[in-house]
Amino acid sequence: MSLTTGTPQTVIGEPEVVEDGRALAEQPAWLALKDAVIGLQELQTQDGSLAEDADPAEARSYVAVIVEAIRALSPLFPHDAEYLAASIHDFQRWSDGGFGVPDFLDSLTAFQPQQHRVDGLTHLVVFPMYTQNGSRNRFVEAVLVEVIWPEFIAELETTYTNALFVSLRLLDFTPGYDTNSAVLFPETVAMREIPTFTWGAIFQDREAARYRRVVRAAASITKLDLPEAAARMLDDQALTEKTFVMWDLIHDRTHMRGDLPFDPFMIKQRMPYFLYSLEELRCDLTAFRECVSIEKTLAERDDTLTAAEAEMLEHARLVQYAVIFDRIFRFAITGTRVRNYDGLGGQLLFAWLHQRGVLHWTDTALAFDWEAVPAAVVALGDAIDELYWRSIDRPKVSHWLAAYDLVRATLEPHPASRWARGLSDEILAGPPKGYTDAVLDDEFPLSMFFEALEKKMRDVIASTEGIRGTDD
After folding, report:
1. Which tens digit of pLDDT belongs to each residue from 240-262?
2. For the chain, which has fewer Cβ within 10 Å, the N-terminal or C-terminal residue?
3. Bridge-partner residues for 201, per DSSP?
4. pLDDT at residue 9 above 50?
5. 303/443 same-domain check
6. Is 311 inside a domain boundary?
7. Following DSSP, what letter does each residue of 82-125 receive, concatenated?
8. Cα R_g (the chain), whole angstroms
9. Do residues 176 and 233 both lie within one domain?
10. Domain closes at, from 145, 180, 198
11. Is residue 396 part of a domain?
12. What is the arithmetic mean of pLDDT over 41-61?
């Protein structure tokens, strides 16, 4: 095969010659596709269309390279044959139509990775899309990915059914994923109408890699003596990846399960950001609670476990450590202080455990009473569940007020908070927008502990942008 990666040109040669023993990320067709995508991005505007001053002929030449590269690579992905054929059609239709706002609904509908959850299976994914926690530009992006689906996860999923969940490892990617984004969601793709979404993917290798880097640094800074099992995760990327698969499998399905006021997270509506904090934390704490139960059940029959069950038992304990350390060490101090709902959830978990005497910051060293930690964490999950259950019978804004009371019972609001002082009758009697507008961008500022930790961890957090599982 003869491929160049400079000036756009078509692929020369038959598709099957890509099967040359080289890794996917080293295939000439992939490298040509990647370069063409990057070149095309420079010609696009935010909605994905061609910029007014861009040269359509140049854009067509990039698309020609992309199309021929997909054709060349397609034999390596027989399970995605329908999708890759539709992708070629969508690219050609977009090019022939003059590069308006792209519409890749047909290829998106054909892409069904949830039907192929086989450990080690690979996918080539090419769409115009924005990347969550990355760029809001709907540029063409391309990723090579590998499925993570070990036997114990397949067995676990028979109980914690989640047909939409796809767990992936990044092999290579274009600049939109050289960011903090660790998800691949179909709703980010440019399309003419919104279909029923049938899958959602998470890059567990990225989550595991940044967890390992952040927790290693934070444990050193806080002089935390990690339990032996938790320490092993810091030196074992594969072990940590599987832990995050187990966590996210249970977390993801929880968004639509339980006694919910209605649909507290997934409906696109504007509401105070601390409600998103509680919803994400509820799902994490449900994963924690379920893993406590799994550990207890399997430990009682330790001598009769299958290999898959033994691995499930091991990771049930590791998920508990991962939830705690990722939440308090990474979530709490990552991102801006503008309506940072994940940050707030990390702050809340830390303060809850501290105030219940199972987490200690004494003599500038962090310590946990590990035997008492599970009950304390589960108690926070129970408090959020109680809030949700009671709010089935509450008006929306009353639920918001009750949620705020739950958070401020543990975390100190900003001194200037109108919510903490009590909202005026005008706001209380008005539409929900008034409630939301009254929330400060940083309604619950970082504690002195987290202010100091953030300064020491700032460079470490920044270094995880674009991290891969192979980065140490």
Report:
1. 999 999 999 999 999 989 999 87
2. C
3. 166, 184
4. no
5. yes
6. yes
7. HHHHHHHHHHHHHHHTTS-S---HHHHHH--GGG---TT-EEEE
8. 24
9. no
10. 198
11. yes
12. 97
First to last CA, the chain: 34
Domain final position from 158, 181, 198: 198
Same domain (yes/no): 158, 243:
no
Q: What is the mean pLDDT of residues 363-383?
A: 98
Rounded Cα distance between 62 and 39, Å, is 7
Q: Is residue 7 in some structural domain?
A: no
Structure tokens belonging to residue 208: 């595991």
pLDDT at residue 8 in the model: 37
Beta bridge mates, 365: 362
| Whether residues 367 and 243 fall in one domain | yes
For residues 266 and 341, membership in a common domain is answered with yes
Supply 260's token pair. Answer: 């919910």
Instruction: Please give the pLDDT value at position 472.
Output: 73
H helices within 126-270, ranges in order?
Answer: 151-156, 204-222, 228-234, 237-254
Domain of 427, in residue numbers: 225-463
The pLDDT tens digits of the residues spanning 296-329 come to 999 999 889 999 999 999 999 999 999 999 999 9
Is the pLDDT score of 111 beyond 90?
yes
User: What phi, psi does 282 have (nearest 5°)?
Assistant: -55, -45
List Cα–Cα distances, 365 to 226, 322, 439, 449, in angstroms: 12, 20, 34, 11
Assess whether 395 and 314 both reside in one domain.
Answer: yes
List the one residue out of 148, 141, 161, 139 whose CA is nearest residue 121.
Answer: 148
Angle at alpha carbon of residue 365, lines to 364 and 371, rounded to 5°: 145
Residues 257 and 340 in one domain: yes
From CA 56, how far away is CA 441, in angstroms rounded?
43
